[in-house]
Batch of 2 targets.
Target 1
Amino acid sequence: MCGIIGIASYKPVSVNIINSLKKLEYRGYDSAGIATIKKDLIDEKKCSGRVDELEKILFKTPSDGNIGIGHVRWATHGIPNLINAHPHSSESVSVVHNGIIENSDELKKNLLSKGLKFKSQTDTEVITILITEELKKNKPLVSVFKTLNKLKGSFALGIIFKDFPNIIIGARRGSPLAVGYSNKENYLGSDSYALKSMTNKISYLDDGELCVLSKNEVSFYDFSMKKINKKVHIVSNDENMAEKGDYKNFMSKEIFEQPITVKKCVNEYIDNLKKDINIFNFPIDPREIKKIYLIGCGTAYHSCLVTKYWIEELTNIDVETDIASEFRYRNLKFDKKNLYIFVSQSGETADTAAALDICKKNNVKTCSVINVIESTIARNSDWVLPIHAGPEIGVASTKAFLGQLIVLYILSLKLASVRGEITKDIYIKNIQNLITLPETIKSILKLESKIQMMAKEFINARGTMFLGRGSSFPIALEGALKLKELSYLHAEGYPAGEMKHGPLALIEEGLPVIVIAPKDKYYEKTLSNMQEVISRGGKIFLLTDNKKDALSENIRFGLRVPHLDNLLSGILLTVPLQLLAYHVALLKNCDIDKPRNLAKSVTVE
Ligand code: F6R
């Protein structure tokens, strides 16, 4: 999704803006642009397509301003093209924007009626025109304040001014914005990751706040224009984990580093000597918890769904799961004895952050299971359980999904133990299983060549289905999501037992159907559902951890992973599904790290 960079320096900034925009490419975008103040004029350069194109333009016609803003755009209002690319500049001001201005049509109509002209189809240009008008009467900060008061919706903004060539103003409502500090240079960024190569000293704007940056100074203001102080965080530098190394793309790197990230996560939470789980400081006494809500979007929502099965299996706590964009508009009865858990890799997903805000307004206890610990969701939660996966750059979530599952599984076990709902023996056995998990994942990754063969059978498919029961149902959903987002092949995940109620009509001769059937209590039932698909011509790809099942001649392809424990099978069976999606996409020549139309961090509703 859109990304913002701003740099106020004593030296030309365009090269560093381009380098930082490259760091934001992983978020998914369709055009890019930069504006600097150069000899009393706004020097704006834009392109549709990649930051490399913008770099070429700058190479031919350099920008040498010491203050500037840059942007990568993920289209919301107006098609992805050169004119709609940010920044949007007038003669006196240039603006980059993340988010959506919900009343832009109304504001635009009003401005047009006053004879003002627009160049683009974007909502952002409304901000440019409004600030330009205010600047005729006011100084920059007041002009921005007055403009923000007219806007409905969400934004993170970076603004520079022709007549005030030493400052950048940043503002936040809804969309994240960070400020970085260095010697004679200060920065604005839509996430701290983009600033990490320049500084590790970061402050985060909260909703309604503004900042004014110059090369020597940063001032912060609240929504009433009162000057405020912000905490400076020293952020970890995990740059190495964000490099592709010898891998073809980030996604393959992230799939193959899962044994390491899972080990790191397990080590953070498991005390191997005491055979115990290091989770303390529950915001509610676990014995008092009435109900747990698990909330997330996309892949993160799938980890919520898997966890529902785990908590129900291990404890007597009621569980409800919801997609954040649904949760935030439900008429819910909040209860102080409930725990509300938010799952998010980025910690910046707009719907998840909004759902968390609603819980906070209702004074209930919140927990977040998060990869980016400096993120908005982490900062706003009562309790944070990090997944320690390191930067995830591929748009399709892989190692973060496993990280979420590990932490949520560990949390489920701890809840069961503190509530006295699990025997000491089973608790210890489960902990031991977790410790062997990284090695088991390593052995599954060795199945890659088989999965590569399997992938060939999907290249010409018109669609596909993923079936599972119990906690394998959300794994089926995740397998389908990975395949569709990476290879653009229509894929549906279904509970295998639900096929007869409609989806069986889709089965035709040769349709590839992936059946996820670990040897758990659903195993025989899943295989019966599989037979129903076989009888109708479906081409079966069976994934299982059962040592001695009939991988019969009716099955097109069978893949066996090691068996650890029924509850952990979902984690293990996810890995072949990631590899399958990856190889189908590779064979179809798709952009693996940046699938079309998608963004890594979905910071708009
Ligand atoms: C799919 C994927 C998305 C994200 C979703 C939530 O591969 O990555 O479905 O899981 O956009 O993002 P986070 O976890 O950052 O809240």
Note: The longest strand covers residues 164-173.
Target 2
Amino acid sequence: MKRKRLIRVAPSINAIDFNNEEILLKALKDIEKAGANFVHIDVMDGKFVKSKTFDYTFVDKIRDKTHLLFDVHLMVKDPDNDIDKYIKAGADIVTVHYEACKDVVSVLKKIKSRNVLAGIAISPNTPVLKIKDIIESKLVDVITVMSVEPGASGQKFIPKMAEKISEIRELNKRVFIEIDGGVNLSNASMLRKLGVNILVSGSCIFKSTDMKKTINALKGKGFFNQVKDFFN
Ligand code: DX5
Ligand code: ZN
């Protein structure tokens, strides 16, 4: 029998008021209780993307507030010199943008050599073919398909980006594929079928009234969701 692929869910705390400590700590506890697998941490530098969020000091500050793994998404220009700071602060996956690095291969090598998972993200305008060699190599553990322009939570999913999942899966059967941006209960089932492994979701999770139910539905867990998948 074919083993069922596990779907991991990574709530993005970019969707909440992360500067409010009370809200932040509650959110971390809530997603942990609700069955999330990672905390997705969006670092924005005000250069690679217009918005600015926080740096490694934030990661350090929240590291002991949850048992969840940290999925750190660096929307940062030339992240090379910061990598070690994020790892020291507690990142479990460090993802850099293909478009933001001068020498992405050397950045990925550095991440991998530190024994954490290395990720590469591609913005909507970057075709999969641009990173074909990297996908086929052993340099990366996670490929993040951006399904919105990087920079903000709450944007609409760009349907065409889903095709990138199949393209990546063709090139590498084992790599973890993550999709980030506008993921919700209407597109999750389609994304699972295409072969995604990690669903990042901000607004859909934090706006829901029952986080556990929402996370389970994103994972396609439970009888009702399985029946829905069958007919989709
Ligand atoms: C966009 C970020 C996403 C975003 C996801 O730049 O990388 O992680 O916060 O939020 P939603 O799910 O609301 O699109
Ligand atoms: Zn992200």
Note: The domain at 8-231 is CATH 3.20.20.70 (TIM Barrel).
